[in-house]
Amino acid sequence: MAVKIHEGIEVYGIQIYSTGIDVLSVSGVPGPIIEVAPIESLVAVDDPNTGMPLTVVSINGIDVSGLILGSSIADQAEAMDDFVLDNVYAGDIDGVILTAFAQPVTTIFVLEKDGNDSGMLRPLDAHGLPLGGWINFTTSDQSVWTFPAPGSWPIGAMAITSEVSVYGLEISSGGIDPMSVSAVPTP
Predict the structure, then answer these.
(1) 42 neighbors 57 (Cβ within 8 angstroms)
(2) Do residues 131 and 123 make contact, with C-beta atoms less than 8 angstroms apart?
(3) pLDDT band at 95 (very low <50, low <70, confident <90, very high)
(4) What is the pLDDT of residue 27?
(5) Collapsing DSSP states into helix, strand and coil, what is residue 166?
(6) Residue 34's CB: how many other CB atoms inside 10 A?
(7) How far is Cα 134 from Cα 31, in angstroms, rounded to an integer?
(8) pLDDT reported for residue 47
(9) Diameter of the chain by CA atoms?
(10) CA distance 85 to 153
(11) 158 with 183: CB under 8 angstroms?
């Protein structure tokens, strides 16, 4: 349940930072508003004759022309803000990766090198603030895809779906290495 605090602004959770104040209880703070699951299909192609690297064509049957890319804060963030799945991947900064989208989205796809990492996820609002609680993800939440492209790695792929439109994603993991993060815009 959301609490409307101003026209068009709904609050789904609260985060409290204590500076010596004893908090006895907080009620009405919802848990996660997202779910994570392995993606069902991933199509990517390369062309050694033209030098085109392994590039995503569709995810879960959605052509990349129907997806948007985010803007990320990570080590080598540019590596995850595209559809290219070559030997370059992003890394976390102090265990955190943030990705923001220019418009609201309902489904986020994370393609990760090897599909062997776990951690926590939570969605972000239009101001980059957390929406709802954290949700854990593990290797079982990722489907693993392999491609015959030279030098390519197995790719772990997960879909994060939200009950409401979100504007970004925070990933907390001490080792995740995203190769691409994209999303389905809210209609």
Answers:
(1) no
(2) yes
(3) confident
(4) 47
(5) strand
(6) 22
(7) 7
(8) 83
(9) 65
(10) 9
(11) no
